[in-house]
Amino acid sequence: MAASFTIKEEKKLSRQDIHFSLARVPGTSQVYSGSSDGSIYFTDLAAEKPEALALDGGEVRHRPGGYITGLALAADHSRLVSGSYDKQLIWWNIKTGKPVHAVASAHAKWIRKVVASPDGKIVASVADDMVCRLWDGLTGRPLGELQGHDTETPHQYPSMLFTCAFSPDGLQLATADKAGRIVIWDVAARKTITTLDASCMYTWDPKQRRHSIGGVRALAFSPDCRQLAAGGIGQIGNIDHLAAGARVRLFDWEKGDTLAEIESSATKGIVQRLAFHPQGQWLLGCGGDNAGFAILIDPVTRKITYEGKAPFHVHDFAINETADRVIVAGHNGLAMNSISMG
User: Fold this and answer.
1) Percent of the chain scored above 90 by pLDDT?
2) pTM of whole model > 0.90?
């Protein structure tokens, strides 16, 4: 019998804005979150009354109203790197809370995700120009770019490069787009290793709207680097609503094999974030439609073992070192939750 799994809300900070990205300071309940108002906020959720304190970059800042969709701690956690719909990347000094470097036109279109390698030496950013760019985690110096995604969907509309993820050993990087194409890269060689298909997460409406929705929104490598999880949503009947099951596809990426196709019949919405337990005991996915959800997948049986509500539509989350607490960010704020199995 599978172990029971519960998520219990411990603390919540309610806000009017949407928090799209999250970076947790290791060993703490302190987080940086990127907002829909174009600001980056620092919050200590261990405080009795948590407050969201905006970083003041002076003249160096993201455009007001430009969604901060990517945050990553880099360079031995001495730098916070932020990316926004304003196409800009900014490197912040964690100790001073001030910007130390900025790239005004890091991408030609909206930046969708920013992640750091496990050692923090490399930062990867992806955007709707369908390019993944690599940067020095400390200085912001450009290190190269990876191009392997089509600029248009199969129905000749502009595509989007939604997400990316480093493997735990830092040797590989995965990128994924709206049409469901996943590319695995050799980070050192800057070359494609293989491609994977998750087009089941892409929906095209040829009649009502002549529009598409979906795509791979979340990626996560297993702790042993052998499996890759991709998250999104099932086929949508009405693309004006996210009325389809939360979907995850598990791959043996080296062999190019699909290990499992997992779609919930009870939980509706897009999986926006995925992460494995540090020892691979479970795979957690969070996201939402009008509301928020959390699902737990057993990587061995490849079945959903838990489905529950989240406090709001979740866009990002961070698990602590002991995997007994998760901090979520999304519509209307931040929340800290305990995780228990038994």
Assistant:
1) 86
2) yes
